């Protein structure tokens, strides 16, 4: 949004967020895990072009690079974890609960920060510590509510479609994906927790010599790749529409 001024910034933010909602809703209806991160980046890029005729291509391309890098790291970490824990005698059901909590926390640390940043930009106030904490709480409550009220389409897609899960596979997946998201967050990389989770499941399944449902994997890859062009176009036209109307 660096090239935009005043009212256009607010209109582009609204257009970008609406684009994310539309795309995520469509993906949810077809039970396809989607990345709100990549949808948001692409909608912002498209909205900037639609309003100012130019977008931050470096930011856009770096997001694609981060997606590829984070998926590779997640896959690698899950494979390494399988090797390290090969002979470990753990109560994986109990450890999976802890790993799931940490995974949820890091999801908020990644995705929550992006929307808190937009909230701060939209409100136009100085980002004090108090405002930051309140914004994080606000976004966290909404993320929790959204998780609770939706049905189990995405849960089933990631939990059962890719690989036949066991307590050990689930723990390895949550642990490795949490570690990957943590590393990316500390480096300031904007990544997709959904893509990272899918890759960690694949790695855990391969490490356990489980059968991988590559049809489900290909669907997730296609949705991930389609997110960038589809949401760029969506953000572009929504921004043009908003500017025309308002």
How would you characterize the overall build of this protein?
- It is a single chain.
- This protein is mostly helical and 246 residues long.
- Helix content is 80%, strand content 0%.
- It has helices at 7-29, 36-52, 57-84, 92-123, 129-149, 153-161, 167-186, 193-207, 214-245.
- Helix 2 (36-52) packs parallel to helix 9 and helix 3 crosses helix 7.
- The mean pLDDT is 83.
Anisotropy-based shape = globular
The SS-based structural class is mainly alpha
Mean pLDDT: 83
Number of β-strand runs:
0
Radius of gyration: 19 Å
Instruction: Report the β-strand fraction as a percent range.
Output: under 5%
- Biggest β-sheet, characterized? none
SSE topology string: HHHHHHHHH
Contiguous low-pLDDT stretches (5 residues minimum) are none
Portion of residues in helices? Answer: over 70%
Topology:
Blueprint: H1 7-29, H2 36-52, H3 57-84, H4 92-123, H5 129-149, H6 153-161, H7 167-186, H8 193-207, H9 214-245
Helix pairs in contact: 1-2, 1-9, 2-3, 2-9, 3-7, 3-8, 4-5, 4-7, 7-8
Describe, in short, the structure shown.
The chain has helices at residues 7-29, 36-52, 57-84, 92-123, 129-149, 153-161, 167-186, 193-207, 214-245.
Features:
246 residues, mainly alpha
């Amino acid at each position: 949004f660096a090239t935009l001024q005043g009212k256009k910034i607010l209109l582009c933010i609204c257009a970008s967020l609406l684009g994310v909602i539309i795309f995520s809703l469509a993906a949810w209806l077809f039970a396809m895990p989607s990345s709100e991160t990549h949808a948001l980046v692409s909608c912002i890029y498209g909205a900037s072009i639609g309003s100012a005729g130019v977008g931050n291509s470096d930011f856009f391309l770096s997001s694609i690079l981060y997606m590829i890098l984070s998926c590779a790291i997640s896959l690698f970490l899950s494979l390494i974890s399988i090797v390290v824990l090969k002979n470990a005698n753990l109560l994986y059901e109990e450890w999976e609960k802890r790993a799931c909590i940490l995974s949820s926390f890091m999801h908020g640390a990644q995705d929550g920060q992006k929307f808190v940043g937009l909230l701060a930009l939209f409100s136009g106030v100085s980002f004090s510590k108090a405002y930051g904490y309140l914004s994080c709480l606000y976004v966290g409550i909404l993320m929790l509510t959204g998780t609770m009220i939706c049905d189990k389409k995405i849960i089933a897609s990631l939990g059962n479609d890719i690989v036949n899960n066991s307590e050990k596979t689930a723990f390895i997946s949550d642990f490795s994906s949490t570690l990957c998201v943590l590393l990316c967050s500390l480096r300031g990389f904007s990544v997709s927790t959904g893509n990272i989770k899918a890759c960690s499941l694949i790695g855990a399944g391969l490490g356990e010599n489980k059968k991988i449902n590559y049809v489900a994997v290909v669907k997730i890859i296609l949705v991930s790749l389609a997110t960038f062009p589809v949401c760029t176009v969506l953000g572009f036209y929504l921004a043009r529409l908003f500017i025309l109307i308002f």
